[in-house]
């Protein structure tokens, strides 16, 4: 059996439970008497404890168990929720996340026992309930543990297993080699999660003492959880039975272990068919399990019923490996390429294909591929909630560390993004929020002096706009002092005083995104190294997005992050420049204009056009792409007006080919230094067209 498959499930489920705990504890801090939240916290802690125990992570289980004890005290109204308790519980969550990080990287929880935190938890219960209650609890636990242990001493009658000839041969060979043969039946607790993983851990524990020769049910059935609450096996070992039983019992959530040493010849005689028990033998043969047939039938019937009832709920969501989704996306990509080939054939000069039926099939194929693309993208789309849920806790911690009162307001957590984008957007958003908390918001006294609420507000808004997702991170703090930025830039030699005279406010603000440029007066563990905004800009642009800043001194700052919905398949405008074909993402295009050459003006040696009250700079793509100039310039230029946030620019092209759905193919390391080109696509006729990145051109 491969434990990794259970490990992945455990990690996913644990992350969800930890997030639930974090959210609920945040609620408890504001609503200490909220019974629903208290119950939810207790359930999440209990589930996490059971899962950790099931996977054999003892340290994680121990810590969660002590947390559960605290929640039980709160649940029973013996303890009131206090600020100190909340801080302690968050320490526990941090420790649990540390265990989980270790498990992710090494498949092991590590060696940190977190004894200090565990002592704090126990001390907290002791102070709350009194020393007497604290002492009685371990005694009660000892009694509870002693009861099943005592019953385990009473040897239960082992269900006899009929052995195949092959199994008899293996057992006899082990006996001949002087090994003991132990028939073992392991009983799992009723509330156990991941029974198969539990069985695997038992096998792993006993295999340190010998070799397992027989499985009932089969090892495959055990792995697939096709068994009730018990399973049996034969172990060949030279060790004493008590060590083996102790090892099996050491696995969490094992209710009982029955062990009997057998001798093959005697055992075979006992398992021979007897006339007075035909019914039982028939049932045993059919089930091939150590459990009694009537009991198994009784247990299975309600279980099947329960499963049927749960289907409508559990069937709504499925965990899918991202690699499988990527493979599916590639198939869709090839299908779209095939569709484009048919379109190319249909537009050829040959009249062989020019008939109505062919065009109908083209339209049908186009509808199918579009629907398939949308379906795949919906599967890949996940709410940004999974990223932003951790930010309220972060803002709470920053509030305490900085000594500022602040509150985070989030909207649009259900806005969906491509999974690959969601995985990478967390760090930029975290940097922006830390920036708002540390640099944006004033201290409490200053806010009161300015007539603002003492508690500062930080906003995180997410919403969809066309083919983009917009995420805004803002605050009602001081705003950016552009004059201070200018002076700092001149002082550090980033710009000269002469350059500063001709720079706009926006250009000054963009200096904040330069590496190592920081306005902080001192470096702290929160900020001041000039890394945060540089990371934001580089990570966002790597995802095909952009970031802009709106600020007003004394009122606050808002960072606007614009991200594409998908990075794989896009609608694009195909253009031609000197017989070369290029693609421009349709989402970046505002409109297309035909501009007379004589209407081109110059501002600071830059070609511009005046269009509907706006001055728009012209970018000649032939010059940018280092192409030969035209010998004769036409009277009218074809200009594609593109936008980046609030900025507009006009791209001069030779010809327009038309709109087309294209598949983005990475160029890898071949031209990764050229940021103008974001990728390539394969056209219907097999020709390769490069995709222009508008964000880098503006």
Number of E-type strands: 22
Average pLDDT score: 77
Strand content: 15-25%
Rg (CA only) = 34 Å
CATH topology heading of the largest domain: Heat Shock Protein 90
Highest-level CATH class of the largest domain? Alpha Beta
Amount of helix: 40-55%
Strand line-up of the largest beta sheet: 14-18-19-17-16-15
Q: How would a crystallographer describe the biggest sheet?
A: 6 strands, mixed
The number of distinct helices, counting runs of at least 4 residues, comes to 25
Number of domains: 5
Structural features, described:
With 698 residues, the protein is α+β, with helices and mostly antiparallel strands. The protein has 5 domains: 4-143, Four Helix Bundle (Hemerythrin (Met), subunit A), CATH 1.20.120.160; 155-272 and 282-298, Histidine kinase CheA-like, P2 response regulator-binding domain (Alpha-Beta Plaits, 2-Layer Sandwich), CATH 3.30.70.1110; 322-382, Helix Hairpins; 384-564, Histidine kinase-like ATPase, C-terminal domain (Heat Shock Protein 90); 569-697, CheA-289, Domain 4 (OB fold (Dihydrolipoamide Acetyltransferase, E2P)), CATH 2.40.50.180. 48% of the residues lie in helices and 22% in strands. It contains 25 helices and 22 strands. It has a 6-stranded mixed β-sheet with strand order 14-18-19-17-16-15. The protein has a 5-stranded mixed β-sheet with strand order 6-8-9-11-10. A 5-stranded mixed β-sheet has the order 20-12-13-22-21. Strand 16 (606-611) and strand 17 (614-620) form a beta hairpin. Helix 3 (58-75) packs antiparallel against helix 4 and helix 5 crosses helix 6. The protein is flat, with a radius of gyration of 34 Å. Mean pLDDT is 77; it is low at 131-137, 142-158 and 274-316.
């Amino acid at each position: 059996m491969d434990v990794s498959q259970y490990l992945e499930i455990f990690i996913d489920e644990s992350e969800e439970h930890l997030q639930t705990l974090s959210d609920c504890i945040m609620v408890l801090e504001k609503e200490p008497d909220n019974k629903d939240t208290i119950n939810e916290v207790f359930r999440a802690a209990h589930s996490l404890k059971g899962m950790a125990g099931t996977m054999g992570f003892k340290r994680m289980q121990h810590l969660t168990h002590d947390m559960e004890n605290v929640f039980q005290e709160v649940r029973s109204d013996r303890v009131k929720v206090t600020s100190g308790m909340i801080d302690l519980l968050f320490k526990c969550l941090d420790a649990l996340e540390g265990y989980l990080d270790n498990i992710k990287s090494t498949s092991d929880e590590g060696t940190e026992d977190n004894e200090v935190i565990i002592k704090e938890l126990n001390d907290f219960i002791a102070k709350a309930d009194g020393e007497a209650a604290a002492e009685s609890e371990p005694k009660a636990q000892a009694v509870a543990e002693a009861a099943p242990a005592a019953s385990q001493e009473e040897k239960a009658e082992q269900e006899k297993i009929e052995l195949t000839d092959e199994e008899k041969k293996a057992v006899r060979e082990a006996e001949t080699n002087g090994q003991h043969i132990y028939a073992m039946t392991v009983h799992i607790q009723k509330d156990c999660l991941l029974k198969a993983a539990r069985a695997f851990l038992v096998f792993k524990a006993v295999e340190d003492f010998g070799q397992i020769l027989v499985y009932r049910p089969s090892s495959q059935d055990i792995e697939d959880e096709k068994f009730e609450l018990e399973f049996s096996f034969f172990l060949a070992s030279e060790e004493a039975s008590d060590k083996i039983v102790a090892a099996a019992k050491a696995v969490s959530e094992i209710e009982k272990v029955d062990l009997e040493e057998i001798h093959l010849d005697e055992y075979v005689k006992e398992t021979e068919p007897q006339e007075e028990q035909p019914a039982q033998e028939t049932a045993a043969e059919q089930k091939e399990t150590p459990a009694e047939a009537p009991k198994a039938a009784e247990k299975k019937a309600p279980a099947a019923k329960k499963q049927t009832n749960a289907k409508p709920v559990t069937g709504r969501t499925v965990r899918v490996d991202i690699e499988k989704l990527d493979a599916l996306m590639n198939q869709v990509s090839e299908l779209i390429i095939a569709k484009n080939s048919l379109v190319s054939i249909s537009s050829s000069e040959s009249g062989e294909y020019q008939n109505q039926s062919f065009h109908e099939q083209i339209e049908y194929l186009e509808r199918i591929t579009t629907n398939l693309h949308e379906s795949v993208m919906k599967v890949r789309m996940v709410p940004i909630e999974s990223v932003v849920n951790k930010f309220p806790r972060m803002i709470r911690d920053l509030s305490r560390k900085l000594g500022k009162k602040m509150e985070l307001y989030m909207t649009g957590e259900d806005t969906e993004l491509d999974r690959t984008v969601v995985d990478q957007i967390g760090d930029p958003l975290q940097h922006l929020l830390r920036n708002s908390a540390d640099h944006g918001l004033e201290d409490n006294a200053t806010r009161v002096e300015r007539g603002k609420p003492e508690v500062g507000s930080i906003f995180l808004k997410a919403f969809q706009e066309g083919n983009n997702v917009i995420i805004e991170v803002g605050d009602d703090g001081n705003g950016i002092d552009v004059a201070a930025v200018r002076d700092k830039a001149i002082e550090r030699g980033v710009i000269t005083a002469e350059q500063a005279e001709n720079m706009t406010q926006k250009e000054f603000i963009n200096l904040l995104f330069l590496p190592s440029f920081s306005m902080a007066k001192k470096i702290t563990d929160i900020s001041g190294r000039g890394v945060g905004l540089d990371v934001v800009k580089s990570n966002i642009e790597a995802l095909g997005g952009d970031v802009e800043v709106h600020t007003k001194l004394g009122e606050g700052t808002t960072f606007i992050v614009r991200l594409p919905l998908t990075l794989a398949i896009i609608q694009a405008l195909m253009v031609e420049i000197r017989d070369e074909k290029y693609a421009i993402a349709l989402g970046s295009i505002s409109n297309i204009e035909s501009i007379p050459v004589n209407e081109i003006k110059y501002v600071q040696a830059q070609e511009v056009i005046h269009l509907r009250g706006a001055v728009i700079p012209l970018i000649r793509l032939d010059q940018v792409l280092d192409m030969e100039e035209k010998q004769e310039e036409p009277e009218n230029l074809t200009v594609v007006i593109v936008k980046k946030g609030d900025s507009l620019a006009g791209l001069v092209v030779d010809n327009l080919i038309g709109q087309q759905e294209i598949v983005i193919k990475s160029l890898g390391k071949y031209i990764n230094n050229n940021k103008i080109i974001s990728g390539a696509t394969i056209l219907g006729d097999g020709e390769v067209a490069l995709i222009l990145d508008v964000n880098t051109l503006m």
